Amino acid sequence: MVADGVALVYAKTATGVNAHAFSVADGKQLWTQPVHPGYEAPSVPLEPVITRTASGRSTAIFLQAATAPAGLESDEAWWTAPVAFDLSTGKELYRGQPEVVSTRPFACDGLLDLCFVAYDQESQSIEHWVDIDSGEETGGADVNPLTGVFRPIGKELYSVVEDGVEKLAHVSFGEVLWEVETEKIFGKGASADFGGRFIYSEKLDLFVGSMWINPTNVSPDKFAEQTFTMNLRETAKTVGFRASSGRVLWTADGSTLDCSQTMGTEATTLEDGDSFPLRCEFTEGHIEFPSGKYRSAKSKLVGYYPLTGDVSWETEPVDVGWSTRELIPTAGHGDHAIAGVPRSQNLLDTRTGKFRGTSFEDVFICLEQAMYPMPPGGPYKDVSGSGSFWAFPCMKSGSAVPALTYGALMDVSTADQDTAVISFEGKVAGYKLLKDFV
């Protein structure tokens, strides 16, 4: 992330992750601090977070390892402390008490200060709000009135589990606007525990989300012990529902937003653009257990109208598997994507669903999932955590090329002071942009 002339980057070490702050102007490292991934590891990507204080100071917020209070030490528990550092100087502005933090620090209401969710003595969730300028901390119903075990899964959207029932809740500025059972929105077998992706369009008063679904009576923790297959069209669903009420507007069976997770939405009709947002839909195939392999799986890309879910355009189905997907992960604003089958990918205009011609001189910014080692101790042993993405210049085939072009830099969302900042494998680089093109 970039703000106020500083780039905040996470980099893995032999034993964990460090935060590094670099000057956008000259690439000089300003400061570094260790980062603890917390209980959201390994599944929730570990990504840099920048917030602002009430006085307007840009601040890096994350977790660091902490010592458990006497008598509460455990090999299966991670005690961490939420911290805040001045983005420009690296000065420590806040350090919280050791807690069993369940959700990493995030900007309160998506705007300012430091919020996090931790477990109380009864293993229930409490959201905390820290005024970084004063160090004053508020927690409980004044910050978030939800009860049970809850966590944010999207902008203003929470997953809540209480009395064995999972709900989705819209919480805005300390007010619970609604709570609806997850299965009433996504159907039987749906759970945020299986993973999901949610997009909030304030302009349209709309959430669009996808969830993975277990259509069987087999508990997920028993999948490795059973031999069975699932129809892929029964394992996922995308739903559009009113942000103000939770009322379902449309559903698309067998579809997911995961394939387009690296694409921005700025150029789409979810915001102020004219391109269509994308979902991917399985058209046939099964997943086998306990191997987890896809069999005869095909999927297509769909450009859809956000308020109705209706299809604007769709591509021909292609073969998919764990290592072969509908889209090559690339940076962008939502107006194009690289789609197709291996060795036959091309640039897709998401306004029309038509492929556009490209040449060998056209370069894109491809993205690859970053991984990091877990800290020693705690609940996740011998497992790698998922980070954000690192980039590399590529052709439409996804093959790496030696250098970026100016056109590719237009797809970068991390630009500050007329400079595009990009994280590559093992290094960070800044590219000067021409003001007339920004």
TrEMBL record:
InterPro entries: Quinoprotein_ADH-like_sf, WD40/YVTN_repeat-like_dom_sf. It comes from Paenarthrobacter aurescens (Arthrobacter aurescens). SUPFAM superfamilies: Quinoprotein alcohol dehydrogenase-like (SSF50998). This is Uncharacterized protein.
